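Good morning,

Attaching, inline, the backbone tokens for the sequence recovery test we're adding to the shared suite. The designed sequence is right after.
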């Protein structure tokens, strides 16, 4: 298993390999160490985030959302050009090929476990079934909390 996280000290992203006996994770850039809480990893399952105190994690596809949306938009634009040229069948074929490629990418892309609070990502886990899929309500709660903390810090300065 490995974890990718943003270091709270230097702000850079780092990746660490973990096993059952790992006691802490360290940033590769500044050597800042984060102690892994006891019981956070049990029998290859992550029960809570190893980097922050959150226990709310979700499973998502391990694929860049920007690339995915960009690919779909590219298919729509090329299809729109074909429609503007009055090539209706070509436009529908482009949309169909785009949808098929998107479905293939969905089926063959693995999952990643992500923390709502600090956005740490956990890969190569044996099982992720105990964790739910993305929940917009939980995400929004953490986003609002981060915005309020940032606003309170700015007003106190």
């Amino acid at each position: 298993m490995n974890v990718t996280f943003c270091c709270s000290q230097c702000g850079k992203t780092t990746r660490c390999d973990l096993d059952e006996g790992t006691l802490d994770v360290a940033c590769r850039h500044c050597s800042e160490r984060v102690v892994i809480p006891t019981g956070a990893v049990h029998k290859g399952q992550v029960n809570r985030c190893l980097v922050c105190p959150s226990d709310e994690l979700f499973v998502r596809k391990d694929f860049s959302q920007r690339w995915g949306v960009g690919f779909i938009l590219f298919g729509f634009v090329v299809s729109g050009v074909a429609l503007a040229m009055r090539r209706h069948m070509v436009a529908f074929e482009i949309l169909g090929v785009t949808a098929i490629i998107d479905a293939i990418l969905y089926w063959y892309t693995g999952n990643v476990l992500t923390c709502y609070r600090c956005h740490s990502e956990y890969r190569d886990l044996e099982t992720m079934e105990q964790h739910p899929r993305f929940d917009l309500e939980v995400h929004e709660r953490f986003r609002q909390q981060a915005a309020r903390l940032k606003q309170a810090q700015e007003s106190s300065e």
